What does this fold into?
Amino acid sequence: MIIYDLIFYLFAALTIVSAFFVVTLRNIVYSAFFLLFTFLGVTGLYVLLAADFIAIVQLVVYVGGILILLLFGVMLTNRITNVQVKSGTFQILPAVIGVGIFTGILVATMTNTKWRVLESEIPVTTVYNIGTLLLQDYVVVFELLGILLLVALIGAASMARR
Amino acid sequence: MQYFSEAIKSLWTVLVGMKVTFKHLFVPSVTIQYPDIKLALPERERNRLYVNMDDCIGCDQCARACPVNCITIETVKGLPDEDLGKTSSGKRKALWVTQFDIDFAKCCYCQLCVFPCPTECIYMTDVYEFSEYERSDLNFSFVTLTPEEITQKKENFAKLESEKARLKAEQAAQKAETAAKVSAEKNVADQSGKKEK
Amino acid sequence: MIYDYLYKLTGSEIWAGVIQSFFPLFLFILPFALFAVWLERKVSAHMQDRLGPMRVGYHGALQTIADILKLLQKEDIVATENDKPLFNLAPVIVFAGSYAVFAAIPFSGAFIGSNIDLGLFFIIAVSGLVVAGILMAGWASNNKYSLLGAMRSAAQIISYEIPTIIVVLTIVMITGTLSLYKLSELQSGYFWNWMIFGGPGPGLHKFLFIPFMFIGFIILYISTLAEVNRTPFDIPEAESELVAGYHTEYSGMKFAMFFLAEYANMFAVSAIVAAVFFGGYQSPFGYLGNAFNLPWLIPIEQFFWFTAKGLFFVFVQMWLRWTLPRLRVDQLMAVCWKYLIPISFVNLIIVGLISVL
It folds into this structure.
């Protein structure tokens, strides 16, 4: 379907362009709001991958949670425009070499690997499968993660009280 | 336990408040649909003035009573043989009222002009909706005479005046003549008297 | 299904989808907003023993149209110190967020914008977009009242999302589906099959569920009321403190978009409450279409029942608005974190235990 390809490129362009602006813009509020479009673009990509649950989790966690917290933080800062980025550029030559090698490896893997294309049926609902995986097959890991997050939360609260 | 009783109590009070507002939903409204329905005005209300020109004798007492000088009256005497009509109380009119303007932009609705009127021809009406776009439109004229009539009356009066002045002058002249004659006769008599002495 | 009909008509699933996606806006949200604004003014007036708008049309029925004509002609004021790109974008994002909710709302058995399996979860997720738009509006207005309103709004919406999600989770745990369509179909039949009366089917569970379902309904209603920033939770746009909150600086059509988004949100949350607890589009007494053997009548009846339920809860929102005074910020947070969240958690656990029984 040509139209789905078009939508895919639209979302991909949205993600990449807004991610570029997030990094380069001097106004950090603009950066934060461009992050919103990055997250939306990623959500769209997830939807096109038929991963509806992950797409919505992306929306809840990143747009509804993290982005809002980020905006709160940004709006409470003193200097919003013309923020000087502290890290300068140094060690250019090793960095170029490292990035070049990494890119080469990535491109080589991408072109040389024989990707296994599965003619799989797109599941009508992914929630059921995810649920069984999380709460039956990997229940111990899931619970451990929950405890870890709880510990982090209590730690943050106790540090904030001090 | 206090926790639950507080929660239940707050919910209950919300319901009580909702009951009150729901009852008020069916209480007949107190709004008066103003231009369609008008409240009866109080007995001694003071609104726009009206002048009944049939009764007005042009005595200028209202204009003098006015604290803000919003009444302008100009009168012209009638001719002696002219019938100006009578007021409703049977008094004979003597003056043509050629200008009777009340500027309601100035008027303070104090009703002080109403009391001195000898014929009770200026009084308060119940008209209170008379807003205008131009301030000059609030200057109401109560004169019943047409402009032609006014000029005619003025001319009549001027003629009368000039006639009177002429008559007066004639009389004065006559008087002077007779006085002169008398004095002359007197003089003659005096002289003759002196002669007799 | 209307989608199938459109697909047959246009011969392309893209066009069918595009046309269908405009349906809720033009056939529902705009007429609803017209009606709801009028209703709000009438309800408030009659609760205060006044009459409300009476001049335009019968009992002021066309008042909203006159107001819209006025808003259209208004000058679009943008202050010099505003952040113009964000200022212009914010109303669009807020409206997009509240319109996206309508994609998953089941208006009737024949029309549901997008019959996705994660309907409830999707609705909760996209309302997060509204928060971003509100923060954007507050910041771009360059106005202390706007920024304070936006901050309050964001804090409030994020806090009250938690009890909403927990109550929705309670229902999902019993029914085993997140799809609003399936949830509505599950509550078909008569009104005793609604979730508020313990859900479908006979049995002991049903009667044990009822008190907890009532608690869940009350919590869901309070927290959704807070999420749409209406009185008594209207501290983000408290007139007496913050002028108009985050839309203080907006005028003309941009203000109208905020206004439309607010009314769309009002219906959306009422629709969620109706769909989750009150049988969605299902009739409480059976269908006339079944009685007279007219199958085409059933979707229309379903649409009627759904709008009736939604409108009833919108009316209750207005009713509460003219009954209760505004909460303070600390009281607002206390209600959420000290009362709604613990009670909904305990409710979730108890309902879980009952369903395991």
Notes: Chains B and A do not touch (no CB pair under 8 Å). Residues 22 and 117 of chain B are 58 Å apart (CA to CA).
